[in-house]
Every structure is written in C-alpha cells, then in structure tokens.
Specification:
With 174 residues, the protein is mainly α. The protein has one domain (2-173). Helix content is 83%, strand content 0%. The chain contains seven helices and no strands. The chain has helices at residues 2-31, 33-45, 55-67, 71-96, 102-123, 125-131, 141-173. The two termini are 30 Å apart.
Length: 174
Amino acid sequence: MIAIACFDAAWGLATVALGEQLLIIAGQLENHHLAMSLGRLVHFVTFGVFNVSGVETGEHARSLLNMLPRPGYIVEVGWIRFCLSSCGVILGLILAYRSPRSIQLVLVWCIVSLGWTVWATIQTWALTMDTLGDSTSGGSIPMFSIELALHFLWPVVLGSRCGLEFISRFRSIQ
C-alpha cells in the first residue's frame, strides 16, 4: 500500500504542477485578450496579408485550454490525490504495525477513495472519451488503464480483502 501511495502522491504533485502551469497560461491569455482581438481585426481587415505575431499561437492555446477541464479543477484534483495518497502512506504504516483499528481505517479510506474516483471520472468523462486512444493529446489507452487500476481497482481489491478480514475477526469474537 505504501509503494502505490507514494507513486500516486508523486502523480498528484505532477498534476498540481501541470494545473498551475495551465493557470499561468490561462492568465496570460486573459491579460492579452484585447491585443489578440486587435490582431484578429488586423488580420481580417487586411484579408490575411498582415498577421500580428502571437495571435494564432494564442488562439491555438485558447482552443487547447477549452478542451481541458478548467485549470483550477486540475490543481484541486492533484491536491486531493496527493492528500488521499498521503493518508494511504500513513494507513500502510498503521497496517504494518498491525494496529487493531487499521482494518476499519483502511475500509473508510477505500470508500472515500472510490467515491472521489467516481466523482472525478464523471467530471472528466467527456474529455476521456474524446481523447481515448489518441496519444497526441495525452489520453491514450495505457494511461487510462493505469488511472483505472490505481484509483478504482486498487481500492476495490484492498477494501474487499480488508472487509473479509474484518468479517472474519468479527465472527471469531462471537
């Protein structure tokens, strides 16, 4: 559990870094909105003879940002992923020390993690379906498979094993 949580924590921090860079790009596009509008006007009035430098790049950047979830959401998802992973590291240590309440804590973590995974997947489902299999846009099938295994199947398997252990302990007490 600790190894998977460490990997996911690093993944979460990388997601935060990506989201922050996208926030910077979105802010720059917003700050230069008027200049880009004037550049489009010059391009239109001159029938494409004159191009103002950077307008097309800004338009492409804006269209790419419109395809993604809002950058603030990406940062939020990264921090939530990092927090859940940090809890996973702590719970892994608690499991290693065989604390009596460790099974219940892991079950709660699994339920929260699954709930978050389902919610985050619903929020980005349209983007996932648009880019599934298209490796140029970053949404390839192997990446989606890793996400599915790490954030859905792992809590299900861990939760089912801990649930069976909890039931067997409860039956042995009776």
